[in-house]
Amino acid sequence: SPLLHARGVAKTFGRTRALRDASLSIDAGEVVAISGPSGSGKSTLLHCLAEIVVPDEGEIHYGGTRVDELDEDARTRLRREAFGIVFQFGGLVPELTAEENVAVSLMFRGTDRAEASAAAREWLERVGVGDCAALRPGELSGGQAQRVAVARALATEPAVIFADEPTGALDSVTGEEVLGLLLGAARERGATVVLVTHDNRIAAYADREVVVRDGVVSDVPAVAR
Ligand code: ADP
Ligand code: ADP
């Protein structure tokens, strides 16, 4: 059975039907790109899969468990334990240093402060921004900030990494470097990656591409193809 599965998911914001009917199955270890035009519902689908947004209709299953009906605390726990998330503009906490931004995600999972700081420094080194450990997000370039965001998403060794236009704010060379780091580390560990992008060149790095149009996605489960 798939690791992550959405069935008939719909979500409306005010009068906007962001998602109308989204069904999608993702196997463990797959790298899946969600593509489609701007405003088609890609981010909303990602947010539903990542338990950030609760759908109005339909079901989300993770590891065989229905997760969209869990309460807020249980969904937060699932996100912290199993998911890593990279946003377009990093989503780093501006008041914290690069090292603290990474360490906090480990501390949420129970790692003590000293161990979390040491691991954070190692991850920053691995993604090429070891010398930025003491800087705050406002002092970093876009590419550096996105590397810190990648380190933060990888540090907890999540089962699933969600990335929403992770390279959208970067020039193409920097973007491909950052994506290479993210996918390289994910594939090394057999992690599952769900990547939202409107860029065909980025989608080409995925094992599979799923297209969202006007809030509709229908996808044949990988096992049936
Ligand atoms: P995409 O990621 O494909 O650009 P989104 O999922 O971000 O699409 O948005 C789909 C539609 O839903 C757009 O019209 C967007 O403006 C709207 N939308 C998304 N999130 C919200 C929100 N929190 N409040 C109101 N409208 C939203
Ligand atoms: P993306 O570039 O990934 O499509 P956006 O920049 O459209 O994302 O949206 C960023 C955030 O703002 C998301 O959390 C989304 O749900 C929210 N959002 C998007 N469109 C609207 C809107 N029309 N009104 C309110 N919030 C929105």
UniProtKB/TrEMBL annotation:
The keyword ATP-binding applies. Residues 4-225 form the ABC transporter domain. Keywords: ATP-binding, Nucleotide-binding, Transport. InterPro entries: AAA+_ATPase, ABC_transporter-like_ATP-bd, ABC_transporter-like_CS, ABC_transpr_LolD-like, MacB-like_ATP-bd, P-loop_NTPase. SMART domains: AAA. Pfam families: ABC_tran. GO terms for molecular function: ATP binding; ATP hydrolysis activity; transmembrane transporter activity. GO terms for cellular component: membrane protein complex; plasma membrane. PANTHER family: ABC TRANSPORTER RELATED, IMPORT ATP-BINDING PROTEIN. This is ABC transporter ATP-binding protein. It comes from Actinomadura rubrobrunea. The lineage of its organism: Bacteria, Bacillati, Actinomycetota, Actinomycetes, Streptosporangiales.
